[in-house]
Structure formats: C-alpha cells, structure tokens
Write a structure and sequence with these properties.
The protein is an alpha+beta fold. It folds into two domains: about 1-65, no CATH class; about 65-269, Distorted Sandwich (Acetylcholine Binding Protein, Chain: A), CATH 2.70.170. About 20% of the residues lie in helices and about 45% in strands. The chain is built from four helices and 13 strands. The longest helix has about 35 residues, at about 1-35. It is elongated. The model is unreliable at about 20-25 and about 250-260 (pLDDT under 50). It comes from Ancylostoma caninum (Dog hookworm).
Length: about 270
C-alpha cells in the first residue's frame, strides 16, 4: 500500500516538473527577446517576474537608428523623378482658415487655407532600420529632394505659400513610407455671380485641385473622408455670408466627368 502511494506521488511530482519544463521551453524564445531589457526573478507563486534593468534599457535605446542615420540611408539611392510604385493615390484634405474678400467687380475671391496631401512612397520605408521614432518631422528643404505629385489649383488666379516667418510647409514621413505634407496658402480664385435676384445675389466660387505634371493613370487624386473643414463655425464678410462648402470628385463637364478634387463655396448677400 505504501509502495503504491509513493509511486503515485512520484508520478505526480514528475508530471508537474515536466509541465513546468515544457512551459519554460515554450516561452524560452519570448523570454530571450524580453530579457534584452529586463532581468527576471521567480515570485512567491513560482512564476517569473520582470525586473527592469536600466543599463539594458539605455543600451537598447542607444542602438536604435536616429533621424540622421535614417535620412542618409533612405536618401542614398533615392530617385525623386520616379513615381512611387509606378502609380500612386494622393489623398487630399483642406482646412479653410479665412475667406478674406469677394469682389463682384473682378468676379473672384481670396481665402487662406491649409491643404494636406498624403501618399505612400515605398522607397522611403525605414521600418527595417530599427528607428528610434516611427515618424520624422521635417522641413521644406528635404521636401525638394522627394517625389511629389506637383499638384496645384489649376483655375486659381494667384496662389502663394505663407512665408512669415518662414515657409509654412510641414512634412512628415512615417516608417512605412507614408508621406504627409501640409501647406498654408493664400489663394485667389474665380467666382460665378448670379445677379438674377439682385440685390440678393448668389455667388459660387470653385477651385479645382490636380497634378500639373502627371495624368490620372499615374497619379490619382481623391478626398479624404473629412474632405473640407472650416476652422471657424461661421464665416461672414461685410456683404456676404458663406452658405456651404462642398468637396466634389466627379463633376459632369460637357460630354464627360471631371475626375479631380473640386472645392466649391456658395455665398449669399
């Protein structure tokens, strides 16, 4: 009887030890990876408890790639004249800051906007370099060395980037190669004046945004889900009130459709 009891106890202890060893083997790869930054100790329940090792954390931080190394690496063989992937989709978003003037004499308007463009450039992917940061905030100097869609408001009368106190251009490159640019612009564009109900005129002002150098097979422009936003809830001039702002993609023009982002502002007296 004692022999059987001893044998059962031995088997139970043996199974428990084997189970514990199998758990350790199964987790050994994870533990080795985590141990780069942590030390480990056995807690009161027999489990493993991580202890932060400051020296290891500091060493791991120093080993990540800094901004200078990343930029020098990705720009080494970069070709700014090559379309990313042969065809690229550019997402567009506009924030209307202020509508400054509407002229019924010259049939145009002036406004200040922020315009964002976003696209993916696989040649700028630096995720494999162990970056210290997964997005790089840069200025217009580097932007001149990158491929861009060379987009513009093709029907604007004038368009200027604000330069006070420096060019108002923002550039962000994500680790996967996504590029986000943002410009602050002062624009002057055309308006269509409806004077049939004078003096209660309706004024429609439109701006069309597209790539100047590439066709739609090479660069596809489209609105983000938010499209166009106002930075102030109510925008009024001395004689006009903004009724609505629309962002349109497919606009019927003659025998076809305009397949470019279109910004349309409607005003009334």
């Amino acid at each position: 009887m004692y022999y059987i009891t001893f044998l059962l106890l031995f088997l139970i202890v043996g199974c428990a030890c084997n189970a514990r060893r199998s758990v350790y083997r199964r987790n050994s790869r994870t533990l080795r990876r985590l141990s780069r930054n942590y030390d480990w100790e056995v807690d009161e329940h027999g489990g493993l408890r991580p202890i932060i090792n400051p020296a290891k954390v500091e060493r791991a931080t120093k080993e990540c790639a800094n901004d200078s190394y990343i930029l020098s690496t990705i720009m080494q063989n970069y070709n700014r004249h090559k379309i990313p992937g042969g065809q690229v989709e550019v997402k567009v978003e506009v924030w209307v800051q202020e509508i400054t003037t509407i002229s019924d004499i010259t049939s145009d308007f002036q406004l200040d906007i922020y315009i964002s463009e976003m696209w993916l450039d696989p040649a700028l992917d630096y995720s494999a370099l162990n970056p210290c940061k997964y997005n790089l905030s840069l200025n217009s100097v580097l932007l001149e060395k990158l491929w861009t869609p060379n987009s513009c408001f093709i029907n604007s009368k004038t368009a200027d980037i604000h330069k006070s106190p420096f060019p108002n251009i923002f550039l962000l490159i994500y680790a996967n190669g996504s590029v986000w640019t943002n410009y602050r612009l002062k624009l002057q564009g055309p308006c269509l004046m409806d004077l049939t109900r004078f003096p209660f005129d309706n004024v429609t002002c439109s701006l069309t945004f597209e790539s100047f150098n590439y066709n739609t097979d090479e660069v596809q422009m489209s609105w983000t889900p938010s499209g166009v936003s106002k930075m102030r809830d109510k925008m009024e001039l001395a004689d006009y009130e903004l009724v609505d702002i629309k962002n349109i993609r497919n606009e019927e023009v003659g025998a076809g459709f305009l397949d470019e982002p279109l910004l349309r502002l409607n005003h009334k007296i």
